[in-house]
Design a protein that fits this description.
Low-confidence stretches of chain A: 1-5
Largest interface: A-B, 37 and 37 residues
Strand order of the largest sheet of chain A: 1-3-2
CATH superfamily of chain A: Winged helix-like DNA-binding domain superfamily/Winged helix DNA-binding domain
Mean pLDDT of chain A: 87
Helix content of chain A: 55-70%
Number of strands of chain A: 3
CATH class of chain A: Mainly Alpha
Shape of chain A: elongated
Order of helices and strands of chain A: HEHHEEH
Largest sheet of chain A: 3 strands, antiparallel
Oligomer: homodimer
Number of domains of chain A: 1
CATH topology of chain A: Arc Repressor Mutant, subunit A
């Protein structure tokens, strides 16, 4: 278990931000770990943000540990013998609750940034 | 010297955020270290953010090291003998350049948060 840094309630943590994106992807369809990594990287690139693979995997493993997601191994179609991990939603209620929590934090952060722009540049 | 964490370009660092507020305060008037601490804390409280004194002082010391601010000791008015540190702008051009840099980052972060809200909640 990774020790969490003490929170001072500044901006949302990268871990929570990535968990949110992972959950939304898995809500839409079955999810192959490797596939979304590159999608996320490409999606954030115009914003100067490049999440590391290790950070995304840590977020994913926390969602498994928390019991929100589950994982199973399947043999890939067409492949002679190649197992891949596929993730799916295990607890929809907890998923919904987590996303609601993150939404409140994102809103709070947006307000804090807007305050900073107003306080220092007007 | 504190070793900086490797940046992945996620959200603005707390250190830069606090430096910005310190610079804006010192632009407005001569600045007494202890005075602004409580002002900042009160100002951010509605946003669930409580910066620690040690973090604010580290931000202040970096601004001194970078040569943007200077510090002198004065004897406080009315006091029999009580020295206090007063900070002032040493390099206005660098201050302006730093604030411009932080503005760009705040704008970027605001866009990233807005994207996350749109991508995951619509």
């Amino acid at each position: 278990m990774v020790r969490k840094r003490e929170s001072t309630g500044f901006l949302i943590k990268q871990r929570a931000f990535l968990k949110l994106y992972i959950l939304s992807s898995i809500e839409k369809e079955r999810w192959y770990g490797m596939q979304i990594l590159d999608e996320l990287k490409a999606s954030f690139k115009p914003y100067g943000y490049e999440p590391q693979h290790s950070e995304i995997y840590r977020a994913l493993h926390e969602l498994l540990e928390d019991g929100i997601l589950s994982r199973k191994k399947i043999v890939e179609e067409g492949a002679k013998y190649k197992e891949v991990a596929v993730y799916s939603v295990k607890n929809p209620d907890e998923l919904k609750a987590y996303k609601k929590l993150v939404k409140a934090d994102l809103d709070r952060c947006e307000q804090l940034l807007r305050k900073a722009i107003q306080d220092n540049y007007s």
